[in-house]
From TrEMBL:
Superkingdom of origin organism: Bacteria
Chain residues that bind a divalent metal cation 2: D111, H174, E207, E239
Binding site for substrate: H83, H181
CDD domains hit by this protein: MetAP1
Protein name (record): Methionine aminopeptidase
Gene source species: Streptomyces lomondensis
Listed cofactors: Co(2+); Zn(2+); Mn(2+); Fe(2+)
Subunit organization: Monomer.
Gene Ontology MF terms in the entry: aminopeptidase activity
PANTHER family given in the database record: METHIONINE AMINOPEPTIDASE
Lineage, top ranks: Bacteria, Bacillati, Actinomycetota, Actinomycetes, Kitasatosporales
Amino acid sequence: MVELKTDTSIDAMYEAGQVVARALTAAQKAAGVGVSLLELDEVAHDVLREAGATSPFLGYRPSFAPTPFPAVLCVSVNDAIVHGIPTRYRLRDGDLVSIDFGAELGGWVGDSALSFVVGTPREADLRLIETAERALAAGIEAAVVGNRIGDIAHAIGTVCRAAGYGIPEGFGGHGIGRRMHEDPGVPNEGRPGRGMRLRHGMALAIEPMVIAGGTDTFHAAPDGWTLMTDDGSRAAHAEHTVAIMESGPRILTAR
């Protein structure tokens, strides 16, 4: 069931989304050679505390997970696609890092992700990240009243495939609002003109994930959470929470 949000509720979601934006900005700024993933998680946790917000990630346990998620920030490095658990691993020069963060404030949730390179970047990694960001922008551009979920999926998939990248099979975006994961699902590839029609008041987390090696397959790391590329190639992730408005898409987690 899809809950249509009032304009007042969307304003409240924006406040939650801005906590997310501040946390991601702070974590990216803190990331550097020698910094541990646990330290980045603590930076994000500090932003939550200062805002009086809580984490929809911490303690979350979907059906596939062997244990509740133990952190407030997902940190996925190099060939990790998404859902990376922060550890004592210390970042190295050239690491490709994807961070994903959510916040709940006043009963509403925001969710966003970005990717970047620590230290000296490789051109291939910059192209991968830029493609994820362009795919996100294309998906958001298609998120307008009267379009369908398939239009968003097609826009994302077209950008990723044109660049020669893979798209993790079965993973994509989702509805969001009072809970982190709500209906409808938002695939990262699909046919235009198909699926649920977009209406004013819908809120979606749109999140392309791309695999440099061009494959669509992945496997779970031993922790049962982190999704890894099967071919060992690097991955990037970009995400925003977006409200569907008569005036056009409103990015609630804009940084």
